[in-house]
Amino acid sequence: MRRIGKTIGATLFMIWMIAPIAQAQQQAEPPAPAPADQAAAPIPAYRSPLASAADNADDAGLMADPNKLIADTTSLTGAQTLSLGQLPGRHSFWQPHLDFTSTLSSNGLSSTTNTGWTTWSTIYGGIDLHRISGNSDLGLLYSGGASVSNDGSSNNGIIQNLEFLEKLQYRRATVSIMEQLSYLPENAFGSQFGNIGTPLGGGSIGLQPGLGPGQSILTASGQRLSNAFVPEVDVRLTARTSLTFVGDYSILHFFDNNLLNSYTAGGQVGYNYQLTRKDTIGLSYGFTALRYSNFNQSINDNVVHVSYGRRVTGRLAFQIAAGPEYTSFQTPITSPTMKGTTPSSSSNLYWSLSTSLTYQLRRMGLGLSYAHGVTGGSGVQAGALTDTVSGFASRQLSRTFSANWNLSYGRNNGLTVNAPGATTVANQTFSYWSNNIGLSHAMGRTMSLSVNYLLQYQDSNSAFCVGPKCGSSFVVHQVLFSLGWHDHPIPF
Fold it and tell me: Cystine design at 436: which of 185, 205, 214, 406 (Cβ 3.0–4.6 Å)?
């Protein structure tokens, strides 16, 4: 892949003039019928077909009336997390966006000698596309651009992000095809790249924890490819019961850092039973085979989950899945340089848990998720027992001002005692915190200006290195100024 040049002149000048468009609202009396030759009304200006309703509301009043939403029908034991519901309307449209961010960063994550303050300019654009045709419902989010070091002391980065979801509806079955791919200069977990392409409140596929490669350890900047391909088939047996089949193939590959490249393949089968209109229970079994392309380690993981979910359209989405996790792996973990060493197999029984909660008030949204289980080790450890926590709070302060807060936490503990030549020391533990506070101002219906403060902190029970700096702890402060333009949805 080509690397962008050392210097890129970035100038952003955007002008957009529109005539006022009246928003469609419910009326106390039905409106008079339109003339036969009158053009169709514009499609609703919601932002992303891949996002939950909590992230899609254009006006605060929408969340006050759950009847304006369509109930979420996501399978409890499926690949996606439960949502508050979807906005109504079946329309095909596309929506372009262009975003510019200026970042002031301390203690940069660069793999070069820079350890002081650095300024970055990031520009990217893309589209949000939604296409309805027959039994197909397709959503696509794409963003591409570049991040440039203004002082030339750090490597520049390329930004490519794609999220794809297609659902094919049949009489008694639904087939879903999901793809989540990113090529980024930094870890997306808890960083400024975690929301690429959706700065005004769009969403994502929302895959369950464990589907796709995890990156919950802070590492030096450098291009990395993360990809998850997830097909799903849901079969309705009766009005209350259904079966869910999920496949998963994912890759995590580092191009600029000497980290562990991993890939996983697996599948899951689940049974869902709807107790009431709002409550569902489920039982599932999943198997995952995890391998490393540049390290001699293999992990086979088996998980049984008992699940419960509760959905109140427009207000609450809660789910929890817990159960035993049986994992077998090589011990001691070996490196390719260890000649004549025959690793033995070890097996351990752990516990696995995944839960998420989303709650929507009239002007405030809250969310919290937690996951515990075996992961690939984020490119640093050859297998880890991982805890991740993600939380958010958003508040509409006025008609044009809103505030948001995002918290991310990851704790990774190595599975076994590593042999000489491995990348980490015996049972090393990493704890990583990320705290992001922001204020945004909507300028009309297409422009947005925001400022954010991002704090990243990591510590460990043994010394580690992030770029040129080594120690038992590492901290990064970032201030980000962003300007975004999202056009109105354009029907086709």
Answer: 406
Q: Is residue 45, in this structure, part of any structural domain at all?
A: no
Q: pLDDT per residue over 303-339, tens digit each?
A: 999 999 999 998 999 999 999 999 998 765 654 444 4
In a domain, 69, yes or no: yes
Place of tokens 């975690």: 194
CB 385 within 8 A of CB 377: no
161, 182 Cβ separation under 8 angstroms: yes
Instruction: Provide the 8-state DSSP code for 81.
Output: P
291 has which bridge partners?
A: 263, 298
Mean pLDDT of the chain: 81
For residue 228, give Cα distances in angstroms to 104, 206, 255. Answer: 31, 12, 18
Q: Work out the burial of residue 95: count CB atoms within 10 Å of its CB; fewer than 13 is exposed, 13-18 middle, 19 or more buried.
A: buried
Q: How many CA atoms lie within 13 A of 383 on its CB side?
A: 29
Helices (H), 108-239: none
CATH number reported for the structural domain that contains residue 441 in this entry: 2.40.160
The answer to whether 325 touches 303, Cβ cutoff 8 Å, is: yes
Q: Tell whether the torsion through CA atoms of 99, 368, 476 and 461 is positive or negative.
A: negative
- Domain that includes residue 133, residue range: 53-491
Distances (CA, A) of 30 to 25, 33, 44: 11, 9, 19
Is residue 299 in a domain? Answer: yes
pTM of the model: 0.82
Number of structural domains the chain divides into: 1
Pairwise CA distance, residues 456 & 209, whole Å: 21
pLDDT tens-digit readout, 16-72:
322 333 333 333 333 334 433 333 333 333 333 343 333 443 433 334 455 577 888
Cβ-Cβ contacts under 8 Å for 65 (sequence gap 6 or more): 26, 314
Categorise residue 188: left if φ over 0, alpha if ψ from -120 to 50, beta otherwise: alpha
Distance between CA atoms of residues 13 and 15, nearest Å: 7
Tracing tokens 């839960």 back to the chain, one arrives at 355
